[in-house]
Model the fold of this input.
Amino acid sequence: MKLTEDSYKILNNPELIESRNKWFQKMEDLYHNRYQDDKVIAVNGILGLSQKYDPYQQPKEWMMDNLEELATKADAIKNDVMFVPLCVEMGFYGVHFVDKILGANVYFQDGQWYNDCLETPIGALKAPDLEHDETFQLSVKAIEGFNEANVKLPLIGLPTIASALNIAVNLYGQNILIEMMTNPESAKKDLETINQTLIKLHQYYQRHLPNQQLQPVVSWNRTQPPGYGQLCGCTHQLLSPDLYKDFIAPLDNALLGTYENGGMMHLCGSHTQHLETFKDMTNLKSIQINDQAALDLEKYYNGLRHDQLIWLNPCQEMTVEKAMEITNGNRLIIADTINTSIKSCSCGVCKQ
Done:
């Protein structure tokens, strides 16, 4: 299957690519305190949602059809109010992609992916043979399809590659938390095995995808400038400050360090007990907060370094207006849609 000529031209349109790159530059300028615009940066893109092909059976064809779909919506990126990137994402097995690679039974039920915990003892986890792993090879084939299309505009999101702690909790449930306190060497062994697997995945994708287009998970909403990685730290709320600092922070920092510019950590619960550690992690350059974590915006804004940005998903209790009162737009990116159908958006901050 090949991309049609019209779609190829659209997805290589220099004007559209320049529109995307201008938004990347605005984000990069915000990191370095060079952003001069009076508008808060907002991002919420378009994700290809092709259902013509089964991604688990025909990953290359699925990828091509997603690109064809995105070509029909490409003009959306010509937006001066907010960043609307075009994205296709390899969401194989949801947040359980790595769990399956590491041997867990993963299944789909009631619209959601789940996994069964491993029955093997903690400390005995073996590194996978990625070259012969069917789950990993799904992403390899999808990447082959993306590269064969040879289009420069769309962003491509990776499968979910979370923190080692997220994966360990999926694989062992609460037992990994108990093991960290009662048999720390055993826990550290498996956490290190998991993290080395995560790093190998990131390194492979960086070698085989264009740097300008590679995005980690939730590529359309957590969009970052090129050269930044990401991990999901949802389960960090389960740990005390000392347990996170001693067991997990070095792993997270090493994982983000596989990218030239470091990267982002996704948080969706109560994680402010780790602020001092987050501040000291040299490769942690931003956090993305939603749900309970969004309510703690002021604590993150005041507690993180001045070069650490915040991607905020607004909610009823943490509106754009309230976020602007706290930050004045400094170090802040709104990960949500801003209304472009009226002269100024409802937050009263953005000026069209």
The CA atoms of residues 3 and 149 lie 6 Å apart. The chain has 13 helices and twelve strands. The longest strand covers residues 284-289. The longest helix spans residues 184-208.
